[in-house]
Amino acid sequence: KPYVADLADVAVSFEDTVNSLVDWREDLLVLLKRLKECEPEHQNFKDLVGQIQDIVNDVDQSGCSNVASWVSHLDEQVEAILATRLADMVEVWVNGLDANDREKEQKFVLEDTYAEDDLNAKPQFALRKTTRRVV
User: Fold this and answer.
1) Torsion of CA 77, 80, 82, 87, to 10 degrees
2) Which DSSP string do the residues of 32-56 spell out, in sequence order?
3) What is the DSSP letter of 121?
4) E strands within 1-135?
5) Cα distances (Å, whole numbers) of residue 63 to 12, 55, 121
6) pLDDT per position as a tens digit, 29-79
7) Nearest-5° angle of CA 29, CA 33, CA 35?
8) What stretch of H or E contains 104?
9) What confidence tens digit (pLDDT) does each residue in 82-119 have?
10) Using N-to-C axis directions, what is the helix angle for 42-61 and 67-105, rounded to 10°?
């Protein structure tokens, strides 16, 4: 084969690889966004991380030279997203427990509401809700 034909084959192959990388990058951006915003359920996380792993496998098989550094950066992004999601879920859980504890601590106190200056008046009673904060 002449040199020009070989060069054309290499250029076409390179163009195909670049187009694939652009598509994979766009797909990854969508998946990372979905990972940030999905309902916090095991299956959602499993599916999204599995789809990300499929793209990583495709990129690895494409023969790119810097896959290891790119995967390392992607791992950091996924880890940061999942850590943030976990922190948010723990905060919601703790707030739910705090609300439950506050609700249990609320008590009703029978309070005498008669006027101190009118000793002959019939005593009036009212229920007053009190909350004791547990720290």
Assistant:
1) -170
2) HHHHHHS-S-HHHHHHHHHHHHHHH
3) S
4) 107-112, 125-130
5) 15, 13, 94
6) 999 999 999 999 999 999 999 999 999 999 999 888 889 999 999 999 999
7) 115
8) helix 67-105
9) 999 999 999 988 888 777 666 665 554 444 455 555 55
10) 170
Q: Are 43 and 50 in contact (CB under 8 A)?
A: no
Which residues, including other chains, have CB under 8 Å from residue 45's CB and lie 6 or more apart?
A: 35, 38, 82
Length of the chain: 135
- Residue 128 forms beta bridges with which residues? 109
104/111 Cα distance (integer angstroms): 20
Q: What angle do CA 39, 44, 45 make, to 5 degrees?
A: 105
- What are the beta bridge partners of residue 127? 110
112, β-bridge pairs:
125
Query: Under DSSP, is residue 112 helix (H, G, I), strand (E, B) or coil?
Result: strand
